[in-house]
């Protein structure tokens, strides 16, 4: 196992502790079923009377951050929570539609913790750490209990018990849901628990506040530098531990299903301060989004995956066939998923469905004015089940589609196209969810763990809440129990230096007064990323991107125009800082995609495919987590590898034929 | 499409604001309302002017961040959607559109169309939760919830906290927002233990924040993008009366 060169020592109180940045995953040994229990017993505890002396910073207030902040507050720690929105209730977890998986086996249909673990490791195409995934499946059952107790209005059956559905091609019904707003309801549960702690005084909330840097003192994460987005004031916050739960970085592609404000700044700044970045190229592309309509497009809207249960996907057989769908006879339609994957048909996993849509559009058979779209047709289902049944199942989605496109999907087939949806990569963390910087924990989509190279539907909500409610409260306690609280204030030189760097960067952006807007750079970066590091990647394209991105970055720093001043609400300045970081991250993603010379999950390298065009893994050479260290030179990061071992789920080729 | 926009511009909370006129000449009917504003802002930036500040995030109608008064109607002319879901095909070529921020005393203006809605968070802090610390929950199926109750609870829980209700109310009342939370939790067995203390605390906080009283006008429900029903307010009032009969006093921190 490779280790970084630098070792840091720090003196905390009377003890000298050695913090070594390493890729030790700290997985417990023994039978997988007992690892988390064993670890929980072995971890150290903080006496309830001492907890208020420890300060924990939580950045982000979504499912992972909100749940962690609320739970740490309940336990008596002194918590400071930060979000960029005007209220913690608005974090992007709120937009998740489908549901949350849990191995409750309430359906008596053969589900178990082991099966959820197995499905998640396999679904992730064997690029996740087994111990972490098993723990996730284990605590999934506690999550449902907790959410019910908080008043999350999950769907019920007439007997009053919890309803489930099958989701994303799973063979068991293990998905709990609250209409098409499961993310919203789970987030409101966490938000309400958080507001309760704010009222109790254990959590102090900083909304409309953005983290712009991490402060590392003697090798340990000791605080953050923030900007108050209303007054522009740059502020210092000191703590004994820092949690980043700041979500994914899909907006590096400019167009994605993420909220407009989602960004990489918190984790990217931490990366620059020494946190390794895990599997940056692993992104998930969701097959059922509404296609782009023009250059004005600011974001993409996801249509729930459940539509594929009753919709049939097709394109015309002929290239450039511009007839309306209704005038294309049955014999001239290509139901390409049903044709190619007879056993799974339209329900193939997200990565497979997305790649095939790209493939037919690349052949010139795409539909809609842009040619980047495929039909999702409900005519047969309406004939078979009747329109009322379709209204009952998908009414809100059909309305949303009609609202956005101005077309009636009951009459003409929907047009869909894949879009960036989720990033499996993120900061590298060990079993305790601690990064390579001691005292810096990373949770939810912001970390790399649990989903491997492809995330299963309804598993993001599960991971966010698992990390926040049931993992971090234990592992942070274990960390805090080994250090003395406090011993540092914001007058420390490291804070002054970090603040000066942030202020300098802000001033530099404001002074440029260049010729192009922030959005124009972001769009161009997004196009490069989508073309060369999107649904399919190859060496030539990635090398092209690796040449172009640093050029674009220099152009940005010479010629971006950021209006206004720093001491006020300045939304262009906020965007500029985020795009500057995306311009650095994009390069690392391409480098990671180039280094991983295999196809796995959402990462499809054209050079590595089977004879019939399916993704081909290389377990001999690529069964590792890539963990990139920042070296000071953006184009020369250092790659470390955490080898992955599969003791329980033996790697096999995924097949959906 | 070519449109004329009259937009409320205000540098900050302590400076007076005014409506300013801007042309929007390259509007596609496929654009969302916020994408139209994006385009106007790109042009303003290139002309060396300060772009229009407005709140937005998810742009799919669920986060509750967007908040515009469009031609005097909260979230614009279409029913049951947020501003971000409104598309320009709902307007006519040549039309003049007036865009203003939410106006209610407890929503002070921060800049242009951006207002401070933390008063809503403080109403939730007063009791908009079930006190169930992590780890204390019984099995999920140990608390059966009749389907009609779960459905009513979910109807109310759909509130996105955008503030359109208070902005549309001639009294500047937050009653629909508060009632949505009271109904969400009050329809569930888990919410019964704190039911009456909750409603008393939340209403007291709503009053203390400076929101007006409810006089059953119904503007709130008419503009609500999530179609929260006025029935929730009836439920709140009923709970409030029972709480009064029980002699429950507000406990406000």
TrEMBL record, chain A:
A GO BP entry: anaerobic respiration
Cofactor: FAD
Major localization class: membrane
Compartments in which it is found: Cell membrane
Keyword terms, alphabetized: Cell membrane, Electron transport, FAD, Flavoprotein, Membrane, Oxidoreductase, Transport
EC category name: oxidoreductase
Active-site residues from the entry: 350 (proton acceptor)
InterPro entries, alphabetized: FAD-dep_OxRdtase_2_FAD-bd, FAD/NAD-bd_sf, Fum_R/Succ_DH_flav-like_C_sf, Fum_Rdtase/Succ_DH_flav-like_C, SdhA/FrdA/AprA, Succ_DH/Fum_Rdt_flav_su, Succ_DH/fumarate_Rdtase_cat_sf
Catalytic activity: a quinone + succinate = fumarate + a quinol
A Pfam family it matches: Succ_DH_flav_C
Domain spans labelled Fumarate reductase/succinate dehydrogenase flavoprotein-like C-terminal: 522-656
All residue ranges annotated as the FAD-dependent oxidoreductase 2 FAD-binding domain in the record: 56-461
UniProt entry tagged with the keyword Transmembrane: no
Membrane topology category: Peripheral membrane protein
The EC number(s) this enzyme carries: 1.3.5.1
GO molecular function, one term: succinate dehydrogenase (quinone) activity
Superkingdom per UniProt: Bacteria
CC annotations in GO: plasma membrane
UniProt family annotation: Belongs to the FAD-dependent oxidoreductase 2 family. FRD/SDH subfamily.
Protein's recorded name: succinate dehydrogenase
Organism whose genome encodes this protein: Candidatus Viridilinea mediisalina
From TrEMBL, chain B:
UniProt key word Nucleotide-binding: no
Entry keyword annotation includes Metal-binding: yes
EC number: 1.3.5.1
Cofactor(s) essential for the protein: [3Fe-4S] cluster; [4Fe-4S] cluster; [2Fe-2S] cluster
One Gene Ontology molecular-function label: succinate dehydrogenase (quinone) activity
Boundaries of every 4Fe-4S ferredoxin-type domain copy: 150-180
Keywords on record: 2Fe-2S, 3Fe-4S, 4Fe-4S, Iron, Iron-sulfur, Metal-binding, Oxidoreductase, Tricarboxylic acid cycle
Transmembrane segments: none
Gene Ontology BP terms: respiratory electron transport chain; tricarboxylic acid cycle
EC class (word): oxidoreductase
Superkingdom in the source lineage: Bacteria
Family: Belongs to the succinate dehydrogenase/fumarate reductase iron-sulfur protein family.
PANTHER family: SUCCINATE DEHYDROGENASE (PTHR11921:SF41), SUCCINATE DEHYDROGENASE IRON-SULFUR PROTEIN (PTHR11921)
Name of the protein this chain belongs to: succinate dehydrogenase
